[in-house]
Amino acid sequence: MQITSPAFKQNARIALKDASLQKALGNLKAGFPVKRAQAVARLPEFDALRDEARDLKNHILENLDIYLEQFENKVVQQGGQVHWCRSSDDACKTILDICKQVDAKTVTKGKSMVSEEINLNDYLEKNGVTPVETDLGEYILQLRGDHPSHIIAPAIHLNLEDVSEAFHQHHHRPKSDDPAVLMREAREVLREQFVAADVGITGANFLVAETGSTLIVTNEGNGDLTQTLPKTHIVVTSIEKVVPTLEDMTLFLRLLARSATGQEFTVYNTLSSGPRRESDQDGPENFHVVLIDNGRSDMLGGELQDMLRCIRCSACMNHCPVYGAVGGHSYGWVYPGPMGSVLTPQMVGIDKAALLPNASTFCGKCESVCPVRIPLPKLMRHWREREFEQHLSPRAVRYGIGGWAFFAKRPRLYRLLSQASNLALRLLGGKKGLIHRLPLGAGWTDGRDMPAPSGKTFMQQWQAKQQAQQKQQQSPQEQQS
Amino acid sequence: MPNAERSPQVALFVTCLVDMFRPEIGFASISLLQQAGCSVEVPERQTCCGQPAFNSGDRASTQDIARQTIEAFDGYEYVVGPSGSCIGMLHHYPELFEATDPWHARAQDLKARAFEISSFLVDVLQFRGIQSEFDGQISYHDSCAGLRELGIKTQPRALLSQVVGLQLSEMDESETCCGFGGTFCVKYPDISNRMVENKTANTAASGAGTLVGGDLGCLLNMAGKLKRQGHEIQTRHLVEILAGTCDLAAIGESEARKPTRATASPYDLAKQL
């Protein structure tokens, strides 16, 4: 996937003018946040669970090596294999090798953002293996040659008409605008793919160290068919997803569903623990876990470690007014919204992604809804500091802030600067007290007026009052003496 | 002074925007604090809280400005400001310094003394003596930093409920950012503009004639948009309503073109002529 994060501003401008996208984003805003709020209201201990989840994740991250090794040992004991992959390339090669070993022609895929992160579909296709997305949203995107714009509702940027058109073109059936008909159509087409696939690839929401299990949650059941029908099941996942026990996993599941969709529990919670055993009725013959680092271990022990607590619920983007205005594609890479603005600079480089952590008013809504209490504004600020240190910030910002700070450190000069600016703005405002066009401030006045100062600065007026009072107090004394 | 020993000693943190754009807010703050029995001073060495540098990633400048602000407010019992955003910034100061740095302790000390004005009046002083009248409906915008960094939500409403004649008409999404965000509004003007459009639409839908908030940055942004869109809605800072200074022109309006109230009687008009 091409990274368009450096063009965030242009992307955003286009997105703001895209009526169909804006309609879709309106649906998002009216959906997930409302449902989350209702779900949270029904669970009085929700905030206590968030504290518990934050603490547990911190404990896991401090002992990550131990839990990952425990997980690997269990997987191997159960007849599976774990492949440790440092980079996207390593992971793609590993997955292709497994596909080649079983002479795979087609693979079905459950929704996996990690597979998007490593750009797996393109890689498989280039090497003669056809991936078929089975999550309805992902399937629609694949038909359209599109990418997810949201981490749990990948096709949230589309409207019904878009889906109807894509199905009509690719399924060669009569066009329908009935969601139920479209759903049935997708099921019929995908059912054949499930049966024909040689390999099934899923992601994982959690890896359980004590049992060597991987877990996926879906609302469609496509994950179950992806991992039980083909002979080979590959789990593509990343190192921070491990949890110690099944019970720990349930803590996160309670938070995940409520934070994501406002459900009390996701419809399908499917555990995979190694390949099929003799007594099992179904399941794959081969079970592989591809465990990806891709920059995550570099975040351990540093300021960004908190980000590794993320359970990919999407609450931060669902509540973000910037995401709500411009949609996920504007961010220009796999992970959008506040969590993406922290992760993307780590994974693609701050030189390419600096506009993302800047695209926040620091309103703090994201942090206030995060189920594992990630201080997202603080982490975005971390990136702004790296950007500033590396002289990547635009010159206007560097010199502007530098010049202004020079004055702010010197109270007397600052006073003079304030007075001069105050006077200039008052002159611009004229009698109306309103500035329609501000030189060097078009960013403000293109879309709104700027109220002009209502009079001299507070400090000027305050000092004048103080002096007048002193004079009043002094004059009777003078008369007496 | 009789109760000099017991009157809280408050240093007013004016904030840059109030200093430069709307001194009325500073004077209304002083008036309110005095009504609540405080003795108020305005330390001369104060400048800016340093937030523009902090949020632009310029940590070195932020530290310098923080040290200068800590010194400016040394020795005052309380530091009170009419802005959740700027007071919130003072609360960030400790994280600028290593725990072993002496400035860290001084920053902690300032943080413990620094309050946004509605929170100071309600939470610290338990003040219930607002003496103000307001004839009409207002809607209150919860500015982000005050709301989420300092927990300011009920305090302004508790104070507004004491204003005689005032009716509060809550807007949808009162807790959603207006799109100001300091430098954000000039760095990402298109997005900022969309966000403030949502805000003015919600404000207009509330039916209120006056939009009230606790942070001048947000108020300048929203007032600017309301004016550009041609709304009649007035915009004011919370303390202006509480101190009863609404006879002065609202934000983005001027004495010279103060709109004549539709309800004005012929007698009023005659007086104006």
UniProtKB/TrEMBL annotation, chain A:
PROSITE patterns: 4FE4S_FER_1, 4FE4S_FER_2. InterPro entries: 4Fe4S_Fe-S-bd, 4Fe4S_Fe_S_CS, FTHF_cligase-like_sf, LUD_dom, LutB/LldF, LutB_C, NagB/RpiA_transferase-like. One of its GO terms (biological process) is lactate metabolic process. Keywords: 4Fe-4S, Iron, Iron-sulfur, Metal-binding. Coiled coil: none annotated. Residues 460-481 have a biased composition (Low complexity). Residues 446-481 are annotated as: Disordered. GO terms for molecular function: 4 iron, 4 sulfur cluster binding; metal ion binding. Gene3D superfamilies: 3.30.70.20, NagB/RpiA/CoA transferase-like. Residues 301-331 form the 4Fe-4S ferredoxin-type domain. Pfam families: Fer4_8, LUD_dom, LutB_C. NCBIfam families: LutB/LldF family L-lactate oxidation iron-sulfur protein. This is Iron-sulfur cluster-binding protein. It comes from Marinobacterium aestuarii.
From TrEMBL, chain B:
One of its GO terms (cellular component) is cytosol. Coiled coil: none annotated. InterPro entries: Cys_rich_dom. Residues 10-90, 139-222 form the Cysteine-rich domain. One of its GO terms (molecular function) is oxidoreductase activity. It comes from the Bacteria. This is Fe-S oxidoreductase. It comes from Marinobacterium aestuarii.
